[in-house]
Amino acid sequence: MEKINVALIGVGAIAESTHLVYLQQHKNVTVSAIVDLDIERVKKVAEKNKIKHCFTTIDEMLNTITLDAVIICTPNGTHIPIAKKAAEHGIHVFIEKPIGTDLEEVKEYLKVSKAKNVMTMVGMTHRFRRDVSIVKEYADRNTFGNIYYAKAKLCRRRDTPKGWFTNKDLSGGGAMMDTGVHVLDLAWWLMGQPKVASITGKTISGLGNYQTKYVSSWESQNKRLNGNHIFDVEDFGAAWIRFDNGAVLSLEIAWAMNGEQDEGISIELLGDKGGATLTPLAIYKEEEGTLVKSNPLFETNDAFENEINHFIHCVQTKSTPLIDGDQGYEVLKMLQGIYESSEKQEEIKFKN
Ligand SMILES: NC(=O)c1ccc[n+]([C@@H]2O[C@H](COP(=O)([O-])OP(=O)(O)OC[C@H]3O[C@@H](n4cnc5c(N)ncnc54)[C@H](O)[C@@H]3O)[C@@H](O)[C@H]2O)c1
């Protein structure tokens, strides 16, 4: 198969540790360029990884080289403006989660990308986990029947990041936008992507800039972006989402809280024929009239590697990705519904 030319935009924490590694390992990929605001960093990473071109803006790159695809790993609020420039040049786009922060901006981008036949994939990494794939296969085979309720949560005790993540202008929101997006997407996808009917949500900055001793934190690789110490987002959020098929999703997310911590995304799916939990993975169903719980055995995989390989495969075969731009838009619509409901202190209804 012909090699494809890919550029990585934003070589911060996640891009250097995962995207770049798996792109470099892929036999059908040439990492033609990397782009980052931070000139020193971009030069260093390019040199270390023997990448031919490095730039500080996407415009400079688009005026200099030709590409098949870009992978965008910049702060959330910059995803769509960058993606739009790539799409206008007919370049396929992988956008890290969340797809963007502004629904109208995303809608406009999707119009442009579709007109240019540009494929969009959103980085919902957890969909590529082996245990998640197993639950999805059971769901698709209708093992659970009608899924009428799901409970999804990821609550950490002290895991609030520093830097641009707490600055709403760059992040679009706090815990909901950062980790909630994964949890919401995963539960919604396993439920069969029903259409949202209404949302009641509450987001709170419960602990804010805590001074707790003996806990670690994480931050952006760009020290300049970290410099402002703005904290105008939530560190806790909860929502009750009703879908037009009658199903309900209950969601709880915390970067920080005074309670028991979830070790990973926790999901409970209740159907009229069966159910499932993650994590740990368990399947519940009746066999010969008896209720049975089973724990499928599996080898774990590297979800990031599978995700990158999937994107490259979709570019090469011109196929639709597992999570495309329209699905990314629907997830952002629900996140924005949670924020709107919290602000207005009322239920938000959606017309489908
Ligand atoms: N899928 C996942 O599980 C996962 C995990 C971590 C982060 N992410 C997402 O990846 C993105 C990046 O997160 P991170 O933790 O690597 O952050 P980071 O701040 O460490 O990296 C972002 C990089 O983008 C650069 N940058 C900022 N604005 C830019 C612009 N306009 N043009 C070019 N470069 C620019 C910064 O200099 C920085 O090096 C976020 O959207 C985050 O939500 C996803």
Describe this structure in words.
The chain is an alpha/beta fold and 352 residues long. It folds into two domains: 4-124 and 305-324, Rossmann fold (3-Layer(aba) Sandwich), CATH 3.40.50.720; 127-301 and 332-349, 2-Layer Sandwich (Dihydrodipicolinate Reductase, domain 2), CATH 3.30.360. It has eleven helices and 15 strands. It has helices spanning 13-25, 39-48, 58-64, 79-88, 103-115, 130-140, 168-171, 175-190, 223-226, 303-317, 325-344, and strands spanning 4-9, 29-35, 53-55, 69-72, 92-96, 120-123, 147-155, 196-204, 236-243, 248-254, 266-271, 274-278, 282-287, 290-294, 348-349. The strands form two sheets. A nine-stranded mixed sheet has the order 14-13-12-11-7-10-9-8-15. Strand 2 (29-35), helix 2 (39-48) and strand 3 form a beta-alpha-beta unit. It is globular. 44% of the residues are buried. The mean pLDDT is 96.
Give the total of domains: 2
CATH architecture field of the largest domain? 2-Layer Sandwich
Instruction: Report mean pLDDT, rounded to a whole number.
Output: 96
The separation of the N and C termini measures 42 Å
Low-confidence stretches: none
Radius of gyration: 20 Å
Share of helix, binned? 25-40%
CATH topology of the largest domain: Dihydrodipicolinate Reductase, domain 2
The number of E-state strands comes to: 15
